[in-house]
Every structure is written in structure tokens, then in C-alpha cells.
Write a structure and sequence with these properties.
- By secondary structure, this protein is an alpha+beta fold.
- The protein has 2 domains: 4-144, Jelly Rolls; 147-227, Arc Repressor Mutant, subunit A, CATH 1.10.10.
- Helices cover 37% and strands 19% of the residues.
- The protein has helices spanning 18-27, 109-118, 120-146, 149-159, 180-187, 191-203, 219-227; strands at 28-33, 48-54, 57-62, 68-74, 79-80, 95-98, 102-108, 172-173, 207-208, 216-217.
- Strand 3 (57-62) and strand 4 form a beta hairpin.
């Protein structure tokens, strides 16, 4: 059992009626994972849904040649465990691994289904969140095949900017810092090439790589590059 207030950190549950949140809290427990630890077993289907409170989690696949590719990064407020509810889920083909220490709320499959049977709105909001993520994964995969590396990297940096800064022209830090290796795996490029593109973006005044706050970005200018709407900008070449 957890305090119902913990569930308020999950945006998808914000509109749930109080009785549904309280019932969910009664069957939930808080869990933690170390960096590199799997949140879901590789072979056995998941038997619980996880609501991420702190840390970052990667949905990752490994090619036949042993090259790791990050398909998605779960952040605080995200939900994992779509295989509990969906027969076809992208999570089934990949590993789910903690990128840094993770704190989450766990709800077992049977407990979740029982609460959802009493409060159907719970099933609706969680399924809606899974569908939203599936649409985002599809969009990202299509972009990986059609967009060049600078655009993919620019969009990634925008995605990891703090909320509400999309129109800012000044430099802001990322909400969740990413290593060059992680960025390369997410956008499907080599690490050296990703570092080169970051340097090109810095020369254009779109990012600042070294500061006491880590990597800084200019959200409005990056968005112009991604959209290709600034005739005066010189887009870095691949």
C-alpha cells in the first residue's frame, strides 16, 4: 500500500476520480531499480504495471551484430507494462532497463485488472497512454528512415527540454541530461557522428556543449531548424 498522493506524480492518472486512485494505492507498492537493472524479465511476460516516479528507463534492442539501439526513453510520469493489457506491444521485442536509479510504483496484473473492473476509467486512461506512446514510437521510427541526423538530434533535444520553453530563444538546460552515447543510440547514429553534429549545432548557435549546467539548447531556434522554417539558417549536413 502507498499514499494516494504518490500517484499524483503520474500525469495520466491526474483526472482519475479520488476513489479510483485510493483503490489503486491500496494494491500498489513502491519499488526501486539500480542502474542497468531490467524492469521486466526478458522471457517471462510482465505481471505488473510500473508508474515511473524518478529516473530514466530505456526501451532497448540489440542488433545481430551486438549494436544497442534505444527505441524510447521512459521519464518520470511514464507508464511501462503495456504487454499486461495489449496483445501486440512494442515492449515485447525489447528490453526495459534502468538508465539511472529508478523509483516506481508497481501494481500487479490481477490487482490492476480488479481495480479497473470496479473503475473502468482507470483502464481507459492507462490504455490511452499506451496508445499515445505507440503512436510516438511509430512516428520516431518513420523519422529515423526519412530525416537526416541533425533533424533527429534536434528533435530529441527539444523533447528533453523543460516543459513550457518551446518559444524561448535563450539557452536552457535539458531536464534530463543525456550522454553522447545515449543520444546516438536514440537517433540511430554512431557516437562520433552524433558528437560531430552537436559541434555543428554549436557553431550555428543552437546548443552550447560545455557549461556548469551541462548541455544547453535554444529551443525556439532548434525548432526552426527541425521545421526547416528559417530561410536564413544553415542546416548542418550529414
Amino acid at each position: 500500500m502507498i499514499a494516494p498522493e504518490l500517484l499524483s506524480g503520474v500525469p495520466a492518472l491526474a483526472d482519475l476520480p479520488a476513489p479510483a486512485r485510493e483503490e489503486l494505492a491500496r494494491v500498489a507498492r513502491e519499488v526501486e531499480f539500480r542502474t542497468g537493472e531490467r524492469l521486466v524479465p526478458l522471457i517471462k511476460p510482465p505481471q505488473r504495471i510500473l508508474f515511473i516516479l524518478d529516473g530514466l528507463v530505456k526501451l532497448v534492442g540489440v542488433s545481430l551484430g551486438g549494436v544497442e539501439r534505444i527505441i524510447y526513453v521512459f521519464r518520470p510520469g511514464d507508464i511501462t507494462g503495456s504487454r499486461v493489457l495489449l496483445e501486440e506491444s512494442p515492449e515485447a521485442a525489447y528490453e526495459i532497463v534502468a538508465m539511472r536509479p529508478v523509483r516506481a510504483i508497481a501494481v500487479g496484473k490481477q490487482d490492476f485488472l480488479r481495480v479497473a473492473d470496479e473503475h473502468p476509467e482507470l483502464l481507459m486512461v492507462v490504455t490511452r497512454e499506451f496508445s499515445r506512446r505507440l503512436a510516438g514510437l511509430t512516428s520516431r521510427m518513420l523519422a529515423a528512415m526519412s530525416e537526416d541526423v541533425p533533424v533527429r538530434l534536434g528533435q530529441l533535444l527539444i523533447d528533453f527540454a523543460p516543459p513550457g520553453v518551446s518559444d524561448l530563444e535563450e539557452f536552457v538546460p535539458l531536464t534530463y541530461p543525456l550522454t553522447h552515447e545515449a543520444m546516438a543510440q536514440i537517433i540511430g547514429a554512431s557516437r562520433p557522428h552524433t558528437s560531430t553534429v552537436l559541434r555543428d549545432l554549436e557553431e550555428l548557435g543552437l546548443v552550447r556543449r560545455r557549461s556548469d549546467r551541462g548541455l544547453l539548447i535554444r529551443p525556439a531556434h532548434l525548432a526552426q531548424m527541425v521545421r526547416g522554417s528559417d530561410p536564413g539558417s544553415r542546416r548542418p549536413t550529414v
